Each structure stands twice: as structure tokens, then as C-alpha cells.
Amino acid sequence: MNESGKFNAAAIERALAHQEPDPVRRAYARGAFWAERVEMAQWWADYLETLKLGGQIIESRLADLRRFSGRIP
User: 25-59 b/e with 16+ CB inside 10 Å = b?
Assistant: First the structure.
């Protein structure tokens, strides 16, 4: 998700279920980024379906940086 460049890093973390250690904060954060998380799930499902049907793998932004800058290992 991060490499796609399409989504907020905090929303990605929330989707991965990285939780707040404090139970009260965790309860309030439950709905955080809900709309974006739904959009991410649909994007991922569409991407997997594209691969299943023989589509192209999305190249990461890091690969682009490596190719153009030559400075990132």
C-alpha cells in the first residue's frame, strides 16, 4: 500500500491493525480512516483480480527512485 503512493500512511497502519496501547485511545480510534480503509481494501481486491487475469504487477515508487537516481541501494 505504501509503495502504491495512493494512501495515507496512518490509514495503512490502522488497516494493518497496529493498535494504540491505551484501551481508551484504541476505542476512539476504531473508526479512524474508515472510508480510506474501505477504499484501500477495494483497491487491493481489484489489484489482485487484475493479477489473476494476467495483468501487470505495479512497480513500486522505490524501484522508480532506484532507476532514476542510482543513489538508493
Answer: eeeeeeeebeebbeebeeeeeeeeeeeeeeeeeee
pTM: 0.57
Binning pLDDT at 50, 70 and 90, where does residue 42 land? very high
CA-CA distance, 31 to 50, in Å (whole number)?
A: 29
Q: Are 57 and 51 in contact (CB under 8 A)?
A: yes
Domain boundaries, the chain: 2-69
Question: How far is 4 from 29, CA to CA, in rounded Å?
Answer: 24
Instruction: Note whether 72 and 65 are within 8 A (CB).
Output: yes
Q: Is 55 helix (H, G, I), strand (E, B) or coil?
A: coil
